[in-house]
Amino acid sequence: MELCGNDAVYSYASAMFVQARIPPEKVQYAVIGTGGCELLATLVSCVVIERVGRRVLLMGGYCLMTCWGSVFTAALCLQSSFPWMPYLAMSCIFAFILSFGIGPAGVTGILATELFDQTARPAAYMVCGVLMWTMLFLVGLGFPFIMEGLSHFLYVPFLCVCVCAAVYTFFFLPETKGKTFLEISEELYRLNFPGWSQSPMWRGPEVVQSTEL
What we know:
Elements: H1 6-19, H2 27-52, H3 54-78, H4 85-102, H5 104-115, H6 121-150, H7 156-172, H8 181-192
Helix pairs in contact: 1-2, 1-4, 2-3, 2-4, 3-4, 3-5, 3-7, 4-5
């Protein structure tokens, strides 16, 4: 989630708003608007997550982020050729953040609760937390060098991560909406070990409540 480029968007938003000829004294309010977009998208995700499902929101979010990131890269390359390209790039920033809030931001945090039983859940959350803050540190540290080295193509590495995340979700991540942990475990086992007929060993309670929030 931290390598998909959303935090890098925040780092680059101010420069893009200035490029779009927004008065410098109002750029800070536009940047606050990017945070408002993510908050709005997260609220929408909370409403639709039980209707659409986690898997669809994750894949859809990463696919939309790939789409808007590609348009953003094209707008950066053509911003000197057309006067309206900076406005298109600014729109892509908001669309990218909205896609992130609806998909990965709203779903990723609850997956550890639904994919791991109570025995493994603390370790899973610990690994998730360490990975999240480590990747966030690396992105914040390395993004200025990426921006300097790749110029207009600075988001291509993040787009590759989004594509890989969407493909991984499609092939290996089961849908957890409204299912018991045993059902999720069996589907996860079937997706990751399609050639094996033996079912996973489950040593939990006989009756497991649904994961529906």
